[in-house]
Amino acid sequence: MGLLSKKDLKLITDPLADNNPITIQVLGICSALAITAELKASIVMSIAVLFVMGLGNLTISLMRNIIPPKIRIIVQLIVVATLVIIVDLVLKAFAYELSKTLSVFVGLIITNCIIMGRFEAFALANGPFRSFIDGIGNALGYAVILIIVGFFRELLGSGTLLGFKVLGDPIEKTGVYAFGYENNGFMLLAPMALITVGIIIWVQRSRNTSLIEDN
Amino acid sequence: MGLKENLHNISEKVKGTKLQTTFGAIHTLFYTPKETTHSGGHIRAVDDLKRTMTMVVLPLIPLLIFGMFNAGFQYNSAVNGFSENLSFFSTGFWNFDNFWIGFLKVMPLVLVSYVVGLGIEIVFATINNHEVEEGYFVTGMLVPLIVPIDTPLWMLTVAVIFGVIIGKEIFGGTGMNILNPALTIRAFLFFAYPTWMSGDKVWVTGAVERVNEIAAGANLDAISGETILGGLAQGKQLIYSTWDMFYGFIPGSVGETSTLLILLGGLYLLYTKVASWRIMLSSVIGALVMGLIFNGVVNAGWITESSKFYSLMSTEFWHHLLIGGLAFGIVFMATDPVTGSQTNKGKWYYGFFIGFISVMIRVFNPAYPEGVMLAILLMNVFAPTIDHYVVQGNVKRRLKRLKAKTV
After folding, report:
1. How far is Cα A20 from Cα A144, in angstroms, rounded to an integer?
2. Are residues B220 and B365 both part of a single domain?
3. DSSP code of A169?
4. In angstroms, what separates the C-alpha of B96 from chain A's closest C-alpha?
5. Do B260 and B246 contact (CB within 8 A), yes or no?
6. By CA distance, what is A185's nearest residue in B?
C-alpha cells in the first residue's frame, strides 16, 4: 500500500475488528437492530453511513480550526444533517421502495452515535486526510456488522438473500422446504437482531480475550 | 463387577481429563456419589440440587403419562366423535389404544428434549471445566409437556439449543438464569414458528392431514381440535363440560390439560416444601381477581355480545384456572426458585401479577391466547426489582424505628 502509511492503514483495519464501533464501543445499535431484517437494506444503510461519515469527518476536520468550541455540536449537526438529506433525497429519487423500507432510519443517521463520536474524538483533532480515512474505517466497521446480521436474519427469517429464494420456495415446498423446514419468524423481530449482535460480540471476545472488560 | 464399580472405575480413570465432566454426570445420574454439591441454586436449603430437582420431576411424570393417553384420546375423538361426560376412570379414556398413539408421539419429544439439552449442558460443562449440573432435569421434563403434540422434532431441537444457551448458559448456567429456560424454549417456538404453536391444527395429532382428507372428500366426524381458549377467542360454543376441563380431556399442549393432576402435583410440591405456597396462592388470587373484574364489566353491561372480547370476558372467572396452561404455569413454572422472587413479601406481588397479567393477556390479545407464558417471563424479569424494593422497604422501616428509638 503505497497510498497509506502503516499508521493510516491502522485507522481502517482497527474499526473492522478490535475497535469495532458496534461490537466493542457499542454505538449505533438502534439502526443495526431496526433495518437488518433484509440484507439489501443493510447494504444500502452501510453505504449511506459510509458516505456521511467519510465526507462528514473530512468537512469537520477542514473546519476544525475555525469552529468556536462552544457551538461545535451545532456545527457538527448541520454538517451531518446536510449530508443525510443528500442521501435521503438520492434514495428517494433512485430507490424509492428501499427508502420506504429504511423509512426514518436514514434520517436518524443524524443521531447515529458513531458519527458524532468520530467528529468529537477524531475529526476535531486531526488533519483532513486522516479524518477521512478514519471515517471510512469506522463506517466499514459498522457495515461489516450490519451485513453479517442482515445476512443471517434474511437467510433464516425469510429464506432469501438479497431477495433471491436461495433456500427454495416456502409455498411451493421446493428446496429445503420439501423436508419440512420452516422460516424462523423470530429472526425478523428486533430482539433476535440484538441476540445476533450479542453472539457476534461473544464470538469476537472469545477469540480475542484481551477485549474482555474487567468489572 | 456391577455397573456401579464399572462406572466408578471409569470416573476415576478419566479424572483430570476433558471427559471427567461427562462421566461424572453419568455416574451421578445413576448413583449417589460420595461428594455432594457445594454451591448452586439450592444454597438456601439443606437439600442438594439433585433432591430438589427429583422432587419436581416426580409429579410431572403422571402428567406426562396422562398427556400420552390424552393425545390418543383427542385423536380418536377427532376421528370418531367426542364422547361427553366421561368419568375420570372411564376406560373410554384409559385404554391401550389411546396410550400407544400418544406414546409414539410424546416419547420422541421427551427424548429430543433430554438428549439435546443435556448434550449442551455437557459441552458447556466440559468447556468451562465444571460439573454438569442437575438443572436441566426439570427443564427437560417440562419442555415436552408445554409444546403442542405435533411440534416437529427439528424445531424442538433448535428451540432447546436456543433456550439452553441464550436462556441459561450465557448467564452462567443453573441457578444464574433470569428467565425460566423451559418457558424461554416455548417462547422461542411461539415467536419463531407461530403456525405450529397456535391455531386449530396443532393440538390434536394429525390435524393437518385430516383437514386435507376432508377436503379430498373423506367423511370424518371432525371436531376442530382447537383449544378452549382459541375457540372462545373466536366466540365459538364449547362442547366440553366443566368436568372435562377439570379432568383434562381437552385439547392443549401435551401435559397442561389435566387440572386435577396438576392440583395433586401442586399439593405434593407444597407437602415436600419444594415450591412456595405464597406464589401459588397469590397467582390463583391474581387470576381470580382479574376474572372477577371482567365478569363485573360484562354484568354491568359495558361490554355487549357484539364485542370481540365478550365470550372470553364472560367466561366464569374460576374457569380460567381450568382452561389453557394457567394451572400448569402457576404450579410448575411460576414457583421456580431461581427465577421467581426470593423475599416472602415479594412472592405475593410476583404471584399476584402472574395470575392477573395472564388472564389479561388471554382476554385482550386473541393472537396470544396463552398469556401465562408471557406473564411468567415478564414477572421473571421483574422479580429482582420486586425483591429490591421489598428489601429497601425493610431497611427503611428499620432505620425509622432506629431513629425513633435514638430520638
Report:
1. 9
2. no
3. -
4. 30
5. yes
6. B192
B88 and B134 inside one domain: yes
* Domain range enclosing B22: 1-35
Do B24 and B43 lie in one domain? The reply is: no
User: Binning pLDDT at 50, 70 and 90, where does residue B108 land?
Assistant: very high
Buried/exposed code over B167-190 (b: 16+ C-beta within 10 A; e: otherwise): bbbbeebbbebebbbbbbbbbbbb
Let me know whether B218 and B285 are in one domain. Answer: no
Nearest-10 crossing angle of helices B49-80, B96-128: 140
Based on the fold, state whether residues B332 and B254 are members of the same structural domain: no
Same-domain check for residues B78 and B164 = yes
B170-226 pLDDT, tens digit per residue, is 888 777 888 999 999 999 998 898 888 877 777 777 766 666 666 665 555 555 566
Report yes or no on whether pTM surpasses 0.80. Answer: yes
Domain positions in chain A are: 18-151
B26, B47: one domain: no
How far lies B337's CA from each of B41, B112, B148, B342, in Å?
8, 25, 26, 7
C-alpha grid cell, residue A1: 500500500
Tell me, what's the pLDDT at B33?
58
Mean pLDDT of A77-101: 88
Query: pLDDT tens across B295-322, in order?
Result: 888 888 787 777 777 777 778 888 888 8
Nearest to B188 among A181, A186, A202 (CB): A186
Give pLDDT, residue B357.
92
Give me the pLDDT at residue B264, please: 92
How many domains is chain B partitioned into structurally? 3
Q: pLDDT averaged over chain B?
A: 82
Comparing B83 with B124, which gets the higher pLDDT? B124
Contact of A2 with chain B, judged by CB distance below 8 Å, is answered with no
Task: Give me the sign of the Cα torsion angle B76, B81, B86, B90.
Answer: negative
- A161 forms beta bridges with A164
Backbone angles phi, psi at B304, to 5 degrees: -105, 175
How is residue A71 annotated by DSSP? Answer: G
**Residue finishing a domain among B273, B304, B329:** B273
Closest-CA distance, B379 to chain A, in angstroms, reads 18
Do B397 and B311 belong to one domain? yes
Set of cell numbers at residue A136: 471510512
Instruction: Decide if B193 and A180 are in contact by the 8 Å CB cutoff.
Output: no
Which residue type is seen at B308? K
pLDDT interval class at B407 (50, 70, 90): confident
Concatenate the DSSP letters of all residues of B53-113 into one string.
HHHHHHHHHHHHHHHHHHHHHHHHHHHH-PPPS--TT-TTTS-HHHHHHHHHHHHHHHHHH
How far does A163 lie from chain B, in Å, by closest CA? 20
* CA separation for the pair B376, A151 (Å, rounded): 33
Burial class (CB in 10 A: 0-12, 13-18, 19+), B73: buried
Say if residue A172's pLDDT is above 60: yes
